[in-house]
Amino acid sequence: MGETADYFKREKYITRRLSLLILGGTLILVPITLASGHGRIPVGVLEGMILAYVVFVAFAVVLIVRGAYARFPKSGSTYDWTLDKATRQKLVRRIRLLQFFVAVYAFGLLNALVHVRRSSWLTTAIGAAISLLFEIVLVKAILRLKNKLRAASIMQAIGVASQPE
User: Fold this and answer.
1) Up-side HSE of residue 18: CA atoms within 13 Å toward CB?
2) Cβ pair 4, 145 in contact under 8 A
3) Strand residues in 30-121 grouped as ranges (E)
4) 94: Cβ–Cβ under 8 A, 6 or more apart, which residues?
5) Which of 41, 43, 49, 3 is nearest to 25 (CA)?
6) What is the reported pTM?
């Protein structure tokens, strides 16, 4: 199936590694946060650990994405002109899931704007910037998947098949 199959393989590869990264961070940061809440660890140490984890995650995400593209390179064809029913449903589900997350991050952005008076402006600005960044990435992914579905529908309607010759 070319590009679509490669997309789902890369996504599975990335998702598994990011899940392990999040699990590891949770196993490390939750006990440190609880210890800091009980006064056994200074707050400065907690802030340092969170900063170190964020920097580590940033580098790890870059390495994970590079590894995914090295392991599953894009196919030679630019589009899969025909999509079977299961792949089409998978893409539609993915679009809906991404649209749900767009709504979640939009709610988070609105929440940050509502609470801007109650907290420091720097943390609110950072949270709003991250939400905006996620919104942009999600919208671009939705548009890319919708274009793939639209192109496949048009090609199927005019009868072009992607059978190798």
Assistant:
1) 12
2) no
3) none
4) 145
5) 49
6) 0.61
